[in-house]
Every structure is written in structure tokens, then in C-alpha cells.
């Protein structure tokens, strides 16, 4: 899970400079995947998969389903951008911003 | 050997298999030890050289037959099919299906079976990074079939699975073999706990599609016996009891696997100690 979190709990305020969307999506990730961390601990540039947040491809599927529901953006495997989209919270939110329909 | 399979034919190449199996059996102590824990449990009696040999020969035969299946020569096999309707009915309604297979027998034999009247997309989820040599070989034999492999390990992987199912296709998963990074769930298998991958049932519960079991048993010569069996119309898992429910579903799979192992003990191709704690 998160390897380098902030030294103590930060209530609802992230130490990282997150946009409103990033903060929302961070919450969505934690809720959807039932992660045992505070959403504010997710660093925007930290890798979501493997060594970073430790997500796997089943998590990616769940996440894409819920993103499609919430933002009307359907992440597709044949889109060359997809792997880059899943790189971090920030890249994910940039893609959502670009493709969202709601 | 691939050259032989193509140019001198199956009987001659099969004769060579005996030599290869004998070589392995005599010289590879590791190979003998790897299959012993399984055979003792599956046969329920002391095992001899003959049993070990059958195991290797069965494996080598299906491996060779994969070559013929890949180049589209499935019609040369004598295949008895049971329970195909459970799959056909659902595909005809346009429902994608998960096909849960195993390393008991041949999965590739599914290619020799007409699943529906029309073309149905079949993909197989595979840990490709472990067998790049085989991947390249198969790509040479039939690039189209190689494209039917969905490799694991990318954030994309399960999106591809879902998209194939949404198109009404079939995705095969071999659900018995645990790979290092997989989460495991312990299941009774031949009376003792063995570790099975936990992700399969969880994935199935997210995909919400019918799950059908598949066993392609090799019966010697050019005979295969293929079994389809409805496992679940839909797997639902409550996240709050996730581990327990995954275990229950996986145990059901393990029970069916054990059943088919008893039907065709020599078809077991997991050549390692399946019950070993730490791998």
C-alpha cells in the first residue's frame, strides 16, 4: 500500500496540492477498492499500480467501471492513452477532465 | 520437433515423444519428484515408473497436439463433447461467458470445437511473461491465435477481458495455478489444503457473466473428451465477507477439478508440488 504517507493524519486537507477533481477521485478510489488508507494520503504523482499504491488489473477494471458511472468516461483498452491514464491519480484525472460527459 | 510435426506427420513425431519422455524420466530427478505428491493422492496407491511415464507422455502428446490445433487441423482429432449446450445457449443469447479451465488436460482443444454457428471470439488470459519462447513459437504458427491471448500484468488486462465479454465472446482462465504475485485462497484438494488463486472468483463477481467449467481431457491416441459444466449463472461476492466467499467459490471449483482429476489422473500438468506451503 502507501509507502510514504504524511507523518500524521491531516483531517480532510491534503498535504499535496490537489485539484477538486483529484480530491474527489482519490476518495472514489479508496471507497471503490475499500483501501485501508485516508484518501488525502494519495500522492498525485505516485504510481497507482505495483510499487506505488499497489493496485492490480482487477482494481483497474473496478475503477474504470465506477469512473464510467460517475463521469461518463469509458476507459478503453485499445486506446493508446490508457496505460498512461492509469499511471497516477493526476494522469487519471487529466484523462477524466478531457473525456468526461458528466 | 515443430518441423517434424509439420513434415513427417503425427505418428512419427509421436514415436519421438516416447524417447523424450524416457529421457526425462531417467535423467530428471526433479521432474520425477515434482509430480509424485499429486500422483500419490490422485491414484491412492503407491506409484511406479509406469505412472510417472504416463504422466509425461500425456503432457508431451497434448503439447504436440497444440501445434496441430494452432495450425487449424482440429478435425484430425476424435473429440467427444459433453455439456456444450450450457455454453451455446448463453452465447446464442449474446451473453459473454467466462470459461474456467485448468492445467488438467488441454485447453487448446477448445479451438477444435465449433462453439456456435457463427464466429465467436475466444480469448485466453495468460501469464505470458513466463513463457516468451512459447509465445513467439505460437505467434509464428498462427498469429491470429497469438492475438487471442490477453497477457496479464498490465492495468489494461481486465479491461480487455470485459470488452471481449461485452461483445458476446468467451474468455478462458486457467484457475488452478498460483503465480507468485497472486493472492491465494486455501482449498481442500484431495483432502489436504492447497493454495489456489483468489483473484479468479473476485474477477468473475465483478464481470457478472455466466461462469462455465471446461475440461479437455486427453484419452490417448487422437481421442479427447471435452466437458462443459455450468458453474454459476453469476457469481456474487459481498465485499464485507470477501475472503470467506472467495474461498467458498474457489472450493467449489477445486471440488470439480478433483472430480475430473479422478477421471483422468494422467492429465495433470502442474509439474510441481501443488500442496507445498511456500512457493
**In CATH, what is the homologous superfamily of chain A?**
ACP-like
Number of strands of chain B: 9
SS-derived structural category of chain A: mainly alpha
Strand content of chain B: 15-25%
Quaternary structure of the protein: heterodimer
Strand content of chain A: under 5%
Number of domains of chain A: 1
* Largest interface, C-beta within 8 A: A-B, 19 and 17 residues
Give the C-alpha Rg of chain A: 13 Å
Q: Could you walk me through the main structural features you see in this protein, from its secondary elements to its overall organization?
A:
The complex is a heterodimer of chains A (102) and B (279). Chain A is an all-alpha fold and 102 residues long. Chain A has a single domain (20-99), classed as ACP-like (Non-ribosomal Peptide Synthetase Peptidyl Carrier Protein, Chain A, Orthogonal Bundle), CATH 1.10.1200. Chain A is 43% helix and 0% strand. Chain A has helices at residues 20-33, 57-71, 82-85, 89-99. In chain A, helix 1 (20-33) crosses helix 4 (89-99). The longest helix of chain A has 15 residues, at 57-71. The N and C termini of chain A lie far apart (31 Å). In chain A, 33% of the residues are buried. Chain B has 279 residues and is an alpha/beta fold. Chain B has a domain at 78-267. Helices cover 45% and strands 19% of the residues of chain B. Chain B has helices at residues 2-7, 10-27, 29-43, 49-70, 84-92, 132-141, 143-146, 157-166, 199-207, 242-263, and strands at residues 78-82, 97-101, 122-126, 149-151, 170-174, 184-189, 192-197, 211-218, 223-232. In chain B, the strands form two sheets. A seven-stranded mixed beta sheet of chain B has the order 1-9-8-2-5-3-4, sandwiched between helices. In chain B, a hairpin with a 4-residue loop joins strand 8 (211-218) and strand 9 (223-232). The longest helix of chain B is centred in the N-terminal third of the chain and has 22 residues, at 49-70. Chain B starts with a helix and ends in a 16-residue tail after the last helix. The model of chain B has no long low-confidence stretch (mean pLDDT 88). Classes of the chains: A mainly alpha (102), B alpha/beta (279).
Amino acid at each position: 500500500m502507501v509507502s510514504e504517507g504524511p507523518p500524521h493524519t491531516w483531517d480532510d486537507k491534503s498535504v499535496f496540492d490537489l485539484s477538486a477533481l483529484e480530491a474527489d477521485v482519490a476518495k472514489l478510489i479508496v471507497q471503490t477498492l475499500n483501501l485501508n488508507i485516508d484518501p488525502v494520503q494519495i500522492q498525485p504523482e505516485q504510481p497507482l499500480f505495483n510499487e506505488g499504491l499497489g493496485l492490480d488489473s482487477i482494481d483497474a477494471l473496478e475503477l474504470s467501471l465506477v469512473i464510467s458511472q460517475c463521469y461518463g468516461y469509458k476507459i478503453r483498452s485499445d486506446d493508446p492513452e490508457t496505460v498512461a491514464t492509469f499511471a497516477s491519480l493526476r494522469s487519471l484525472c487529466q484523462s477524466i477532465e478531457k473525456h468526461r460527459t458528466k | 520437433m515443430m518441423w517434424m510435426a509439420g513434415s513427417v506427420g503425427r505418428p512419427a513425431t509421436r514415436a519421438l515423444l516416447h524417447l523424450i519422455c524416457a529421457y526425462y524420466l531417467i535423467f530428471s530427478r526433479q521432474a520425477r519428484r515434482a509430480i509424485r505428491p499429486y500422483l500419490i493422492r490422485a491414484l491412492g496407491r503407491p506409484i511406479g515408473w509406469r505412472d510417472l511415464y504416463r504422466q509425461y507422455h500425456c503432457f508431451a502428446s497434448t503439447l504436440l497436439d497444440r501445434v496441430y490445433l494452432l495450425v487449424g487441423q482440429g478435425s484430425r482429432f476424435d473429440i467427444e463433447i459433453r455439456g456444450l449446450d450450457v455454453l451455446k445457449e448463453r452465447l446464442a443469447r449474446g451473453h459473454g461467458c467466462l470459461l474456467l479451465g485448468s492445467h488438467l488436460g488441454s485447453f487448446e482443444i477448445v479451438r477444435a470445437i465449433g462453439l456456435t454457428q457463427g464466429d465467436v471470439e475466444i480469448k485466453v488470459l495468460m501469464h505470458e511473461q513466463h513463457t516468451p519462447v512459447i509465445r513467439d513459437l505460437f505467434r509464428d504458427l498462427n498469429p491470429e491465435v497469438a492475438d487471442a491471448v490477453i497477457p496479464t500484468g498490465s492495468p489494461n488486462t481486465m479491461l480487455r477481458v470485459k470488452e471481449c465479454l461485452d461483445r458476446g465472446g468467451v474468455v478462458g482462465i486457467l484457475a488452478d495455478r498460483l503465480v507468485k504475485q497472486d493472492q491465494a485462497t486455501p482449498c481442500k484438494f484431495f483432502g489436504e489444503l492447497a493454495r489456489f488463486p483468489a483473484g479468479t472468483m473476485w474477477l468473475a463477481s465483478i464481470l457478472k457473466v455466466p461462469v462455465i467449467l471446461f475440461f479437455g481431457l486427453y484419452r490417448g491416441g487422437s481421442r479427447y473428451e471435452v466437458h462443459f459444466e455450468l458453474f454459476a449463472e453469476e457469481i456474487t461476492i459481498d465485499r464485507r465477507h470477501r475472503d470467506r466467499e472467495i474461498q467458498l467459490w474457489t472450493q467449489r471449483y477445486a471440488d470439480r477439478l478433483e472430480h475430473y482429476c479422478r477421471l483422468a489422473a494422467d492429465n495433470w500438468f502442474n509439474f510441481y508440488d501443488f500442496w507445498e506451503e511456500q512457493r
